[in-house]
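Below is how a single chain appears once it has passed through the pipeline. First comes the sequence as given, then the structure the pipeline wrote out for it. We keep one example in the README because the format questions we get most often are answered faster by looking than by reading.
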Amino acid sequence: MAVSASLVKELRERTGLGMMECKKALQETDGDIDVAIENLRKASGLKAAKKADRTAAEGIVAAKVAEDGSYGVLVEVNSETDFVARDDGFLAFANSVLDKAFNEKAGSIEALVDEELENTRQALVQKIGENIGIRRVALVQPESGIVGAYVHSNNRIAVVVELSAGESELAKDVAMHVAAVNPRVVRSEDMPEEVVQSEKEIIKAQPDMAGKPDEIVEKMMTGRINKFLKENSLIDQPFVKNPEVTVGQLAKDGGAEVVAFVRFEVGEGIEKKEEDFAAEVAAQVAAAK
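Resulting structure:
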């Protein structure tokens, strides 16, 4: 049967879905809007699953710390495009994920995601038309000490830092440094051995090592490895707000030591799939017919 434009408009307003999808749903139910909504709700899980193979490498990261600095959480919620990452509905969902992780002190996806949250995610996928995913969550809760957080203004980098003592504001300053400089480890002895060995192989292969006696090579390599470790260890780095002191000295001056940090950056480690935009649009048009 023919479906009126006003009926399609009403269904769009009630569901937030696209015009063609609403029109098709109404045609299948002979214009019964309530049955169309029920059918669309039944289909929401299938639609979310169909979009699950699309790369969601955009989105936001967020952090929240208890007022007393006793614990903090980090979350990353992804979308396919940066445009959706700025959508009010997406941001509201991401904030609800952060609040749930904070309130429940969830330290893993398994501990965080329940049926209600998953249903909310699937409804958002259906409404927005992009794959939305809760990628990771971290809980920093020391037995003693203090935590602080810093989130970069564009919500693409978030850090939680744990100090042995001191104030949350000091931990926040250290977190800001971690966000800006991205150290690999807290201290040089924390660097994984495989990373050190890989760096040694790189140094050995450098042109100025060629033809030198083994003892000279070893001496030069030791110096360069120490430099590498210092540059990549948080407590040895010059503090971004005052390069005259290291981060380790900054913490010490505040009566503390840096214990740990967790740094999330949107999409890090995700291999973005190259999309043929024209082909994708054509496929979407064909599916809407």
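The radius of gyration is 25 Å.

See the next section for the split statistics.
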